[in-house]
Amino acid sequence: MTDQNLNKYSTDSISLAAFLLSEGCKFSGLERITPTKVNFLFENSRQIQTLADNFWKSEVLVEPKKLLHALKDLKSLLYQFFNERR
C-alpha cells in the first residue's frame, strides 16, 4: 500500500515488512493505526512495489537467515515502540 504522500510505502504485514527489509529496502519507521496495530513504513520505489507484488504472488526466493534476522529486528522495534508509548 502506498502512503498518501507517495514517498512512503506502508504495510501492516510483518511478514512482508521482514521480506522487504531482508531485500535491502529502506525502512523508515512505524506508524500507529490503532492502539494495537502499526504500519511498517518504507521509502517508496518501483523496486518495492515489484517486490511486494511478487511476495504476494509467491514468486520470490529468500535467504532464510536474512529473513529471520529482519523478522527479529522488526519484532524488537515493535516491542520498543509499544513499551515506550505506555
TrEMBL record:
It comes from the Bacteria. This is DUF5659 domain-containing protein. It holds the Pfam family DUF5659. InterPro entries: DUF5659 (IPR043718). It comes from Candidatus Gottesmanbacteria bacterium GW2011_GWA2_43_14. Residues 7-79 form the DUF5659 domain.
